Amino acid sequence: MYANSQSNKWLDRSIWVLGILVAVVVLGFGAYYVRDRYFQPNVSMAQRDTKQLEDLVKQDPQNIDTRLSLAQTYLSDKMYDQAITQLQEVLKVQANHPSATLGLGITYARKGDDANALKYLGQFIDMTKSSQYASVDDRLNAAYYEVGRIYMKQANLDKAIENFKSALAIDPTDSDALYQIGTAFMQKGQYADAAECFRQAATYVPDFVEAYQSMAVAYDKNNEPAKGDFARAMVGFSSGSYQETVPKLEKVIQSVPNFVDAHYALAMTYEHLGQKDKAIAEYQKVLTLDPNKTMAKNKLQQLTGVQQQ
C-alpha cells in the first residue's frame, strides 16, 4: 500500500547520494553558463546544463569532476545508460575511484540491474569500510542502505536487515533504514520488533505517514489495539489534522495512561494548535514518565525558556 511513496523517497535519496559524490566543477563552467544561457531561449535550464557539461567533457575528457557532474545530471533525468558510461569513463582515468564506484552501484540499482548494483556497491563498501572515517561516512551509509534495499526486493530478509543495521551504525537517525528493518521484521512475523522500528523511525521524522501506518498494523498483529489506535491517530497528525487528533490521543491515554509516546504526541499536537500551556503540561508528563527523554526536555526549554535538568 505504501510502496509508491517509499519508492519515490528511494529515488530522491539515490539522487541526493550521488550529488554528494560530485566535487565542485571547474570555475570556468560558471562563466561558460553565463555566456551561453541567452543564446538558447527555447531550451530548458536542465537541458542547457546537460549540454554544457557534455561540451566540457568533450573539451577535457580526463576531467573527473565534470564527468561525475554529468553522470549526476543523467541520473536525475533517468538516463541510466548515459550515466553509467560517464562513470565507467571515470574508472578508466582513475581505477577504483570511490565516487564513480558508488555511483555505478546506485545507477545500476536505479536501472534494476541488481547483479551489477551489488557488484559495485560491494566494491565500494570493501574499499571504504576500514577507513578512519568509516563510522561517519554518509556514502558508506548510502551503500549499505542500497544493498539492503536490493536484498529486500529479493526477499533475502536476513541479509537486508544486516545491511540496514550497518547503515544505522553510521547514522542512527536514518529513519528510512529503520522503516525498512521494520518492514523486514513484519515479513518475518516479528511484529513487536517491527513496531519498535517503525516507532523509532517516526521519532526522527514525526510526520512519517508510512511508518505510522505500518506501526498500526504491527501493533494490531501483536495484540496491542490501543497502541494501534495511537499509530492511526498519528496518521491524522502527519496530514495536519491536529484538531481531530487530540480526542483520539486522549482516548489512547485513557486506555494506556503511561504510554510515553502518546503523551509526547499529544504535546506536539497541542503545540501545533498553539495551545502552549497544554503542550507544556504534556511535555512535563512525558518527563515524569521518562526523565531521560531529551526531545521533551528540548521542547520544554523552547516553550518555557527554562533550562531543563
Short description:
With 309 residues, this protein is mostly helical.
Tell me what you see in this structure:
- Helices cover 76% and strands 0% of the residues.
- The protein has 309 residues and is mostly helical.
- It folds into two domains: 3-171, Tetratricopeptide repeat domain (Serine Threonine Protein Phosphatase 5, Tetratricopeptide repeat, Alpha Horseshoe); 224-309, Tetratricopeptide repeat domain (Serine Threonine Protein Phosphatase 5, Tetratricopeptide repeat), CATH 1.25.40.
- Helix 3 (45-59) packs antiparallel against helix 4 and helix 12 (209-221) runs antiparallel to helix 13 (225-238).
- It is elongated, with a radius of gyration of 23 Å.
- The two termini are 43 Å apart.
Question: Topology, please?
Answer:
Elements: H1 3-21, H2 28-36, H3 45-59, H4 64-76, H5 80-93, H6 98-111, H7 114-128, H8 138-153, H9 157-170, H10 175-188, H11 191-204, H12 209-221, H13 225-238, H14 242-255, H15 260-272, H16 276-289, H17 294-304
Helix pairs in contact: 1-4, 1-6, 1-8, 3-4, 4-5, 4-6, 5-6, 6-7, 6-8, 7-8, 8-9, 9-10, 10-11, 10-12, 11-12, 12-13, 13-14, 14-15, 15-16, 16-17
Following the backbone from N to C, one meets helices and strands in this order, namely HHHHHHHHHHHHHHHHH
Structural class label? mainly alpha
CATH homologous superfamily name of the largest domain? Tetratricopeptide repeat domain
In the CATH hierarchy, the third-tier topology of the largest domain is known as Serine Threonine Protein Phosphatase 5, Tetratricopeptide repeat
Overall body shape: elongated
Number of strands: 0
Beta fraction of the residues?
under 5%
What count of domains describes the coordinates? Answer: 2
* Count of individual helical segments: 17
What about the largest sheet?
Answer: none
CATH architecture of the largest domain: Alpha Horseshoe
Rg, Cα atoms, Å: 23 Å
The percent range for helix content is over 70%
Q: Between the first and last Cα atoms, what is the distance in angstroms?
A: 43 Å
Average residue pLDDT: 87
Please report the first level of CATH classification, the CATH class of the largest domain: Mainly Alpha
pLDDT < 50 runs, ≥5 residues:
23-45
